[in-house]
Amino acid sequence: MNINMIMQQAQKMQKELEKAKKEFEQKELTFNSNGGAIELVIKGNKEIIGINIDKDLIDPDDKEMLEDMLKVALNEAIKSIDAEMEKIMSKASGGMNIPGLF
How many other CB atoms are found less than 10 A from the CB of residue 93? Predict the structure, then answer.
């Protein structure tokens, strides 16, 4: 295998990775927390599309509880998105670990 073939394969793999990343970034993902009391719709690029909070969670006297539950739900969603992106990139790169690529 000559260097030109290696470079062509690397360029092809990079294009495939970029395509997979762009597709995932536009995908809308739905996350439920607290038994479905909080529903988040977030794109793969972490843009928040929607937040739905069950009215039973809204207590004007305990806004800190709702803030904490929302924070936990958002952090869990972000971790899930990051893990899914990592899986997609690993699959698209044939399992090769390419530090700093994305």
Answer: 17
**pTM for the full model?**
0.78
Per CATH, the architecture of 17-92 is what? 2-Layer Sandwich (3.30)
Q: Is 86 exposed, middle or buried (0-12, 13-18, 19+ CB in 10 A)?
A: exposed
Mean pLDDT rounded to a whole number for the chain: 89
Q: The sheet that has 38-43: what strands, in order across it? A: 28-33, 38-43, 48-53
49: its two tokens: 């599309």
Buried/exposed 24-47: b ≥16 CB within 10 Å, e otherwise = beeeebebebeeebbbbebebeee
- Residue 49 phi, psi (nearest 5): -95, -40
pLDDT category of residue 78 using cuts at 50, 70 and 90? very high
Closest of 78, 84, 87 to residue 40, by C-alpha: 78
Q: What are the residue ranges spanned by the domains of the chain? A: 17-92
